[in-house]
Amino acid sequence: MSRNSGLALTLAVVLLLPWLLPNNFMLDIAVRIALTSIAVIGLNFLMGFAGQISIGHAAFVAMGAYGSGILISRWDWPVIPAALVVCLVVSALAWLIAKPFLRLKGHSLTMATLGMGVIVNMVLINEVNWTGGPDGMPVPPLVIGSFAVTKIIHWYALAAACLWLCCLLSVNLFDSPAGRALRGLHGSEIAARVVGVDVSAFKVRAFVCASAFAAFSGVLSGHYLGFISPALSSFTHSVELTTMVVLGGMSSTYGVVLGAALLTILPQLVGGLNGYEAVLFGLVLMLTMIFLPRGILPSLVLLLKRA
Length: 307
Description:
This protein is mostly helical. 76% of the residues lie in helices and 3% in strands.
């Protein structure tokens, strides 16, 4: 599928979906998929393009949600300046920690990102005066100018527009010189250095971009949910985001969106299994890795080409 045809198909889907979904419950799931996909597209820059594994990505989502909630509810900031400042601050923090983190490789890098996630989670739990502690905190509705985004259809329009723009950025990055450099260092850092790629700089850029997308997703998710808790930065949430990338297909923009959709819908479909949802989740992931090792979408595309 070409870049333009993929974007056109995505646009057609997001425009038609509200007319096809039967009720507001399904529309709510679609909004959650779109908001989660924004974070996962960013994480794909780091994992799928640059080949760096992170299991602390939920920390940046939580920073975005809490940062925006605190600025708006406690200091009466307007939404757009608050969102911009939060994303910039989170990106700056990501840049500061990226340099020492990305000197590590393999399991060492994975453990470092895990440690970062644990630290953020503990700060959110213990800073009761700012974050509400373990009980969480309410987040005011999203108000842009004089317009309050409260109806589910308005939220769908906003989330779908943001998702499509993120897909546009991602597919353009994939085909750009920077995207080819990132994919080159994913294949072999030594080979990338030989052809003149500044490996360290590109890793840092991927980490910062991933954190910015996550923070933006967190900002929108906080206002949509209306309430946030430290669970947003939990290890479980980080693993879910990482799994979405792997399941849908690393380096595939539409694949990671598919992964986000599947893992958001799955708990709704198997909610009556009395605690065995995690077993089914693990089984789906295991079978995918055995039979579709590149992820669902890239593997299916490859099978269709061979057919």
